[in-house]
Design a protein that fits this description.
single chain; 184 residues; alpha/beta; Dihydrofolate Reductase, subunit A; 21% strand; disordered N terminus
Length: 184
């Protein structure tokens, strides 16, 4: 999530800007939100470009830890409660209260699992790469979704787009959640 998106892939900058205008997003660059309940965050993982607004969402103890570290003026620390975790609904409510209408999650499998279980995911962008990797009982590698079981009411995807670049497939699915009627 480093840097502003137009700089991540310069050939796409014009299309990216047009897409943001079509969505009614007027800011030149989206805000980067980093979620870390513990506050254990290496400064090199925070975008340093002062043109990229950054909000670090954490717990009160995480905020105390982060406030001891040097940070740039474009980085805000937001504490969303006590304890060692942050309820995903609280994160989403915080973002909505700040005026965010569109949230793109690039979070880990536990955060993604909580978002799915809460019916808070409208679309999934999935990249298929041509490399196969297994997992053994001793492997610590995580899966796409962790810490929740979605069955028997798991969301189903309806394909919205397929793109190919070299040997990679980029798939976009709209999700339907059988256990709820509307995301709003």
């Amino acid at each position: 999530m480093a840097g502003r998106r137009p700089h991540a892939h310069p050939p796409s900058a014009r299309g990216y800007a047009a897409w943001r205008r079509q969505l009614g997003l007027t800011a030149a660059s989206p805000v980067t939100v980093i979620v870390t309940a513990s506050g254990s965050l290496e400064p090199r993982h925070v975008p340093m470009d002062p043109g990229t607004s950054v909000i670090v969402v954490t717990t009160e103890s995480g905020a105390r830890r982060l406030r001891r570290l040097p940070r740039a003026g474009h980085v805000e620390i937001a504490s969303l409660g006590e304890g060692d975790s942050i309820a995903v609904g609280r994160i989403v409510a915080f973002l909505h209260a700040r005026g965010f209408r569109l949230v793109v999650s690039e979070g880990g499998p536990a955060l993604f699992g909580e978002l799915l279980a809460g019916g808070m995911v409208d679309e999934v962008f999935l990249t298929l790469a041509p490399q196969l990797a297994g997992r053994s009982a001793a492997s610590a590698r995580l899966s796409l979704v962790e810490d929740v079981s979605l069955a028997p009411a798991a969301p189903w995807g309806r394909i919205q787009g397929v793109m190919r670049s070299n040997d990679h497939l980029f798939l976009r699915y709209e999700l339907s959640h059988p256990h709820r009627e509307d995301l709003s």
